[in-house]
Design brief:
Elements: H1 7-39, H2 50-63, H3 66-69, H4 71-75, E1 129-134, H5 141-150, E2 154-159, H6 162-168, E3 171-175, E4 181-185, H7 191-202
Parallel strand pairs: 1-2
Antiparallel strand pairs: 1-3, 3-4
Helix pairs in contact: 1-2, 5-7
Protein name: FAD-dependent oxidoreductase
Pfam families: Rng_hyd_C (PF21274)
Region (Disordered): 1-29
Length: 208
């Protein structure tokens, strides 16, 4: 009941690039399967085919195992171009399909961190929006007030945990219900700036 008219439009802007990225990765993986299939020959099935199997194993290892180890594809996708994310122009978002590099740039899925008490940080998030306050960051009253005017619920989670600081650094992180970072900053005290952030995240208007 608190989403704006542009919120549904964000779905296509967010998911279509991810679908294309996954499609292209799948095509590359199909090529790998064809390369692997070309390695095999009848000698592998013969009783004395040990040497052939060793050679096949060596060649397959050289080809790589990207179809099973593409953590960048699985975890490293981002919605930086979404109309429901306060993107940071010039922010670096790793895009290696094989390797996932954690980042908190707006648009990415919040990196999973296990807190020093053994609890996963993702288990601390609220059911709707969450304002993470890491280190000495103070919850933004302006953001909370702007969300309240739109009727959007926000849970506040304060964390002063070395495990979080190593990955997130310090500051405020507004996290969406789908666990993607919508906005980040050291502070937000200006009511007009806070309203623009909330309105963009909820699909009401473009951010300034």
């Amino acid at each position: 009941g608190f989403g704006g008219p542009r919120l549904a439009e964000a779905y296509d802007a967010e998911r279509r690039p991810v679908g294309r990225r996954n499609r292209d990765a799948s095509a590359r993986h199909s090529e790998v399967r064809r390369e692997i299939a070309a390695v095999y020959h009848p000698g592998l099935l013969a009783p004395d085919g040990d040497a052939a199997r060793l050679e096949a194993g060596r060649r397959i290892a050289a080809i790589g195992n990207a179809e099973n180890e593409s953590t960048g594809i699985e975890l490293g996708y981002a919605y930086a171009g979404s109309p429901a994310v306060c993107a940071e122009p010039g922010a670096t978002i790793p895009d290696d399909p094989l390797r996932y590099v954690p980042t908190t740039a707006p648009g990415v899925r919040l990196p999973s961190v296990v807190l020093t008490d053994g609890r996963p940080l993702l288990d601390r998030l609220g059911p709707w929006f969450t304002l993470l306050c890491c280190g000495d960051a103070v919850p933004s009253g302006a953001l909370l007030a702007a969300a309240a005017r739109r009727g959007a619920p926000i849970d506040v989670v304060r964390l002063d945990d070395p495990a979080v600081a190593r990955v997130y650094g310090l500051g405020l992180f507004l996290v969406r219900p789908d666990q993607h970072v919508a906005w980040r900053g050291r502070a937000c005290d200006d009511p007009r700036a806070a309203a623009a952030i909330i309105d963009r995240v909820l699909g009401w208007e473009e951010a300034a």
